[in-house]
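## retry 2 of 3
previous attempt timed out at serialization; input unchanged, resubmitting
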Amino acid sequence: MKNLDKDIEKVLIDAVKIQERVCEMGAQITKDYEGRELVLVGVLKGAMPFLCDLMRAIDLPLTIDTMVVSSYGNDTVSSGSIHIRKDLD
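## retry succeeded, writing output
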């Protein structure tokens, strides 16, 4: 894996603090959704690492689903209009 340390000017929130917060969120979701059906929805592709961490922090049965959306089309600048490329199953 490429060493990116030289490319990072400043770390705003370190990995430990992020993981602590994900665990707090998981505990709160566990409390709020106890006895209810829970579906976590992530927008591909960037959400998957976070969604997997959050899923592991929730102590309930759950399912996950994903969407693919785009506002760029074939351009490099957003059109401002969202196009759903893959909707929820």
